Amino acid sequence: MHPPNVPASRNRRRDFAVAGACGVFVAAMVGMSFAAVPLYNWFCRATGFAGTTQVATAGPGTVLDRRIEVRFDANVSGGLPWRFEPEVNAIELRIGDVVTINYTVTNDSASETVGQASYNVSPPTAGAYFSKINCFCFTEQRLKPGETREMPVVFFVDPALAKDPEQDGLTTIVLSYTMYPVRQNEPPRVERGTAPAPGKG
Fold first, then answer.
1. Which of 67, 103, 62 lies closest to 85 in space, CA to CA?
2. CA distances from 140 to 16, 135, 179, 200 (A)
3. Which residues lie below 8 Å from residue 27, measured CB to CB, with a gap of 6+?
4. C-beta of residue 70 within 8 angstroms of C-beta of residue 157
5. Per-residue pLDDT in tens (0 to 9) along the chain, 201 residues
6. Cα–Cα distance measured from residue 145 to residue 153, given in angstroms and rounded to the nearest whole number
7. How far, in whole angstroms, is CA 192 from its chain's centroid?
8. Are 132 and 56 in contact (CB under 8 A)?
């Protein structure tokens, strides 16, 4: 016959095991949530998923006779008083040509504002073959009132596209940018008649 405290001890061990398993599960879920964004970005860059372009340090060294049209699109999100446009609406280039296109942005407001661009290409499957050597995307742009700035994009269409039978009918790629406002940290407000704390004035 077992001592009366054995079942209670077993129950406690079972409760501790369940609590431990739950803790591990919660920690794993938190870790996955933090890893999700960089993993998603890596996946998009590696595969061109969702129209994500590729990053290159130099041109491909091969230029094909096949030509393709690249159109340029510029958008400004609400809350950002900027004018944003490409220098040309479209160009025709040979696959493998390294091309530089400038986008122009102007701050139409009476105060300094900060924006940042995101981008994609369409059709989305073209992202795996659209490589940028230089780009202003994901770099904060701080503009003074009335300031205008030119921002270059250096890119090429990878000759590997010609080996993909799914791209045989591709004649046009659209490169699209959207500027979003970037919120800046506001300095602490001091009420009238209140002196700042020592060492912080």
1. 103
2. 49, 12, 10, 28
3. none
4. yes
5. 555 555 556 556 655 555 555 555 544 444 443 333 343 343 344 443 444 678 889 999 999 999 999 999 999 998 899 999 999 999 999 999 999 999 999 999 999 999 999 999 999 999 999 999 999 988 999 999 999 999 999 999 999 999 999 999 999 999 999 999 998 665 444 444 444 455 544
6. 24
7. 42
8. yes
